[in-house]
Specification:
Its cofactor is Zn(2+). This protein is α/β, with parallel strands linked by helices. It is built from 13 helices and 15 strands. The strands form three sheets. Strands 3, 4, 5, 6, 7, 14 and 15 form a seven-stranded mixed beta sheet that branches.
């Protein structure tokens, strides 16, 4: 079979790899039907995640069909169509018992495409398959479902819920990539008064408007501080969500938040960011970080089935598996291609 293999910083290849095989009784093997690329994959290729070793198959977001199950798998059968979560959960350790699956100490957490081979391949091994997959109803398309593997629960849990978005809040989202747009979609569930989106690319700001942002700020043209202060009577935003992962965007978030407000960091940071405690400590600002736990995935799936989440415009480019490397090129150049999420399917 073939997979997208990481060869060290800046190196990737779609090439032959050993067939996926059961390694533990709790494993399942899926035929990968639809898979997508994450910004985290680009961070890996940029050398920002040193735990990923050369030779690793990348990817942690997929929809597939079960083709084999280990003897310890009780809730899946061959032929089941499933969502493979970005987070694997042993279901036994202290953190799993508290629904903090991202912090699993029993061999799970974020391991796919990180510490074990991922799902950007023709077939994939899914550890802890009973706890780490979700059966999909027929009315949910592969393209919609794959967005629930990572970006929707990540934005909802690490951004919106950690930021404690409430009705009437002014919410600022810094970064209008897929994670930022998913934060807009899920923040709207709480009826904020305003959703402000800040980005440097006009095409992404246009997408943010489509997904429900009502105020758009283009860096380099508009001053985010001036816009937010004018909107809030000089106070600052109730919630600021960081969805990029650079020192500059994090520091901007801390400048835009009001006294007593919340900064929710989602972005994956590859470099240190300065925390200006000399000015923040007196303002009662709460800063949260987090790796997604995916405890909200079942609820998000219910909302998707009920038509409460409109994800129809999130996928902008589609490829076959033979074009995986082209898919990476397109996703890595959003300013030139207009890419949001790209999907690769059989």
């Amino acid at each position: 079979m073939k997979g997208l293999v990481y060869g060290g910083a800046g190196v990737r290849a779609w090439r032959e790899i050993p067939d996926a095989a059961i390694q533990d009784p709790r494993d399942a093997i899926i035929r990968v039907d639809t898979v997508t690329i994450c910004g985290t994959d680009l961070h890996i290729l940029g050398g920002d995640v040193p735990e990923v070793e050369a030779g690793r198959v990348l990817g942690h977001e997929a929809v597939g069909t079960v083709v084999e199950v280990g003897g310890g798998v009780n809730g899946l059968a061959i032929g089941d169509r499933v969502l493979a979560s970005c987070i694997s959960a042993c279901g036994i350790c202290r953190f799993c018992r508290e629904s903090s699956y991202g912090q699993c100490r029993g061999g799970g957490g974020w391991i796919l495409g990180h510490l074990v081979d991922g799902v950007q391949s023709e077939y994939a091994r899914i550890p802890f398959a009973d706890q780490s997959t979700y059966r999909l109803p027929d009315q949910v398309s592969d393209e919609s479902a794959v967005l629930l593997a990572d970006i929707l629960p990540t934005s909802y849990e690490v951004g919106v819920l950690n930021g404690r978005v409430r009705p009437g809040d002014t919410v600022v989202v810094v970064g209008a990539g897929p994670i930022g747009l998913a934060a807009v979609v899920t923040a709207r569930l709480f009826s904020p008064a305003h959703i402000v989106v800040i980005d440097k690319a006009q095409s992404r700001l246009d997408s943010a408007k489509m997904f429900g942002a009502d105020i758009l700020v283009q860096t380099g043209t508009d001053d985010p501080r001036t816009v937010v202060e004018a909107l809030t009577g000089g106070l600052g935003a109730d919630v600021v969500i960081e969805a990029v992962g650079t020192p500059q965007t994090f520091e901007l978030c801390t400048e835009l938040v009001r006294p007593g407000g919340r900064v929710a960091n989602i972005g994956v940071h590859g470099k240190p960011a300065t925390l200006h405690l000399e000015s923040l400590w007196i303002r009662n600002v709460t800063i949260t970080t987090g790796l997604v736990d995916t405890y909200t995935t079942p609820k998000l799936l219910d909302m998707l089935v009920a038509g409460q989440l409109d994800l129809g415009h999130m996928v902008t480019h589609r490829f076959g598996m033979a074009d995986f490397e082209q898919a990476y090129d397109v996703f890595a150049d959003p300013a030139g291609t207009g890419a949001l999420k790209v999907v690769v399917s059989r």
